[in-house]
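Discussion board: Methods & Data

I've been asked by a reviewer to show the raw model output for two of the constructs in my manuscript, not just the figures. I'm not sure how much to include, so I'm pasting the format here to get opinions. Each protein appears as its amino acid sequence followed by a line of discrete structure tokens. Is this the kind of thing reviewers expect to see in a supplement, or should I convert it first? Here is construct A:
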Amino acid sequence: MMVNQDIVKYRQAEKSFLKQDYHQAAQQMASSITAGGADSAKLNLLGDIYMALEKYDRALLAYADLSSMVPEDLNVLIKLADAYSLAGQTDMALEFMAKVLEQRPEFRTALLWKARILSRDQRFSQAIDLYYQALGD
């Protein structure tokens, strides 16, 4: 029976990520992608690994590729926004949050993430208003 190294490396990367061994997880994901190409699950995990490693530029690349594969997934747009925010690109982060909220204006998760992004940018009064909106006064 032939073992699919692609899947083996992906599962190892998942386990390493859960153990918070992010450097090992990144190496395993690189091996998985080399062996079997990139798919949405791999790109999602790769972006999450890079976020944990605080390598936001790399996370942005992974999430951008993921977004092109699953453009309807609003959670991916939120991940992109978070990565942009942590990379210090607040305007880009808010643009992605605007796209999410344009599609689902009352999406509480998106409202909370937007408030978080505004808080990071020290726009506290705007953030507080969004927290109230998301949590229902």
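Construct B, same format:
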Amino acid sequence: MMSVISNLLALLERWGTRPERRPGLAARWHSWIAARRAPTVGLSLLVAAFALLRLVYLTADPPLGITTSRVFYTDEGWYARNAVAWVLTGHWHREGDFNPAVNIPVWTILQAAMFRLFGVSLYTARLLTVAFFVALLVLFYEFAAHYVPRWAALVGCLLLATNYRLFAYSRLALLEVPMMAFLMASLLMAARARRGHWRLGVALSAGAFACAYLTKTTAVIGLPAVVYLLWLASDGLGNKLKGLALWATVLLLILYVHYVTVALPHYPDYVYFNRLNIAGRQFDEWRPLAVLQHVAQVVWLGLTLYDPLLTGVVMGVTLLLLSSRQFRQCPAVRVALLGGGAMMAVMLTVTYHPTRYFLPLGVPLALLAAAALSHLHNARGGWLLRPVFAILLVSVLAVQGHAILDYLARPEYSFVEMCAQVRQQLAEEE
């Protein structure tokens, strides 16, 4: 965690441009916050502050309203069980029990490493997710800054850092945030594959994508965007096909090794997990009216479950897509549309739509908002839409940020207290 924070701080030091010095005069101590750099520094500090707020009261109960079921959330133990067993007993596999590590080993390996370093606890389990969220912000910034100004990339980071639902889930030991971070790393490596040792970039992109898939299979939503970036990275049809072939080879090799060494020896567990989480939730009602209702439901959930206020931002971006060819041709916009479209397409194939399934939508939405701000800043006539878009963004940030601070002002520990009572009762019975 400290290394991630150190990297973030080092990145913050590089943001912005160096203030001009007048010849013959020594720079004053406050020259680093010159007027032209102040907005970037301010945004950086806001992003860092809201990101690190996740460490405050980390073992507190999550908000009850973050799930559609309105019941207390217990999936953290569902996915941590193999890591806990591995550290406490030396064996990760539990015969006759649920073993998610067979299908999603990356999360189990990382959690087990954290438990060995810091001990088995709820705080340690959640700390790993917070570290992944900080990494997600850094990776998002590095990726977005390829295509938009740094201040716009920071606005995108701020949208992610202040989103209330993403805040709540990035404090829980669940799979969505680590998957999003691995996907972001894959996109960044693919975007950089044109530089220098392109084969290494392609291989690293495939490795990061494999880690995302072996953390949560929903990572397939990133496939169209990665393929687009790899296609964009090379000149000439031959080089493009070579890059794609190398990426696919590395990915399939990693997945094959996992299948042979982990899945096949525990095949009943592998099949049970797929049947429970994939096969049993497929949409299979193909009457025209049922399909239309299902599509409307998924789109509505995507716009409301993640953040209702972002609906206005989505409408503004849609206007830009329809009116500006330059905006449509921006690679960041196309990556966001491919990622968001793939996310919604996957959601259309299933009937189970919990709130956390829509969390990955936050990345393409933040990327679209950053690209829209950059476009409006530079476009002729942008002054007409600039104030409206700015008001929408400020409203989103204010409402979401207030919700986060309000939640942290009244932490509750019913789950931790219940566990302590059960532990005490067991000790008394012994």
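Answer (T.O., handling editor elsewhere):
This is acceptable in a supplement if you add a one-line summary per construct. For B, something like: The CA atoms of residues 282 and 350 lie 4 Å apart.
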